[in-house]
Amino acid sequence: MPDHAADAPTPSLDDPATDPMDVARAAARVIAERTGSDTHDVALVLGSGWGEAGDLIGETLATIDNTDVPGFARAAVAGHSGTMRSVAIGESGRRALVYGTRTHFYEGRGVRAVVHAVRTAAAAGCSTVVLTNGCGGLRPEWAPGTPVLISDHLNLTATSPIEGAHFVDLTDLYSGRLRDIARAVDPTLDEGVYAQFRGPHYETPAEVRMAGVLGADLVGMSTTLEAIAARAAGLEVLGISLVTNAAAGVSEDPLSHDEVVAAGKAAAPRCGRLLADIVGRLGADRAA
After folding, report:
1. What residues act catalytically?
2. Residue 127 annotated as binding?
3. Strands 146-155 and 236-246: what pairing?
4. What is the distance between the alpha carbons of residues 261 and 283, in angstroms, rounded to a whole number?
5. Cross-strand bridge partners of residue 45
């Protein structure tokens, strides 16, 4: 009997009448077909400086171009990879779904596109998502190259990925349990509050001072919308920032994306090993 569902048109994130989870489920079906695995366990979104983690977690079992998966697009930012990978988590028999890039809010593709990766991760069976980024630091003691756990966030984008009367509790959005696991890997890890601005321009010194008054320790252009959508989809969230530069006004040096990319490359070996070790613990934790 022919599979008429396979012939149905792929739902689009651009159609406001479409349930975005339908697109996520369509994407998850393609990932399952291309990877030969019906489910994945942990998803990772790799920001600037975190790209080596996928190589260190375990063997890459399949690589998929983003453009081959419904709802995804090629990488739009230097230093990111336009592919996703299915990676074995050591010898545990579990799999990580590793995204080499993310869609940023400033790209103008809409909030649905920004959070599509985490919704797809949930549809693919993941119970945990690790969100990483490169960011500006407000604390002078956090030199470029310092990884920092995200304990909470300020969403300064003036939008939400949640549509309709769906009220999501964000009290413990960034899992304390997962942060404890991360500190078991590296007891020196500090933590702080991350503030997301819309971008793509960097924040002004006055905006950085405002964020600090509001309680921020880190500023960047990603992560908070993804974290909200992840919680709404039932995922446990671990957030880790890499301080790639001092935020505007904290130092006298001007900001540049080249600086961010260079700091990310310099920190990549340490951050990749750290993230791989954390994911290995997550696998052991879930398997226990």
Report:
1. 203
2. no
3. antiparallel
4. 30
5. 99, 131
| DSSP assignment letter at 72 | -
Paired with 242 in beta bridges are 134, 147
Alpha carbon distances (Å) from 69 to 12, 35, 82, 125, 262: 12, 12, 11, 16, 30
Cβ-Cβ contacts under 8 Å for 273 (sequence gap 6 or more): 52, 56
The per-residue pLDDT for range 202-211, each reduced to its tens digit, is 999 999 999 9
Domains of the chain from N-terminus onward? 4-287 (3.40.50.1580)
Pick the closest to residue 230 from 154, 116, 151 (CA basis). Answer: 116
Half-sphere exposure of 22 (CA within 13 A, CB side): 13
Alpha-carbon distance 218 to 196, whole Å? 9
Query: What pTM did the predictor assign?
Result: 0.91
From the list 117, 42, 111, the residue with the least C-alpha distance to 75 is 117
pLDDT tens profile 41-71: 999 999 877 877 788 899 999 999 999 999 9
What whole-number distance in Å separates Cα of residue 211 and Cα of residue 32? 41
Cα 123 to Cα 263: distance, rounded to the nearest angstrom? 34
Is 141 annotated to bind a ligand? Reply is no
- Does the annotation flag 155 for ligand binding? no
Is 155:114 a contact under the CB 8 Å cutoff?
no
Per-residue pLDDT at 11: 78
CB count within 10 Å of CB 30 equals: 18
At CA 16, angle to CA 12 and CA 17, rounded to 5? 85
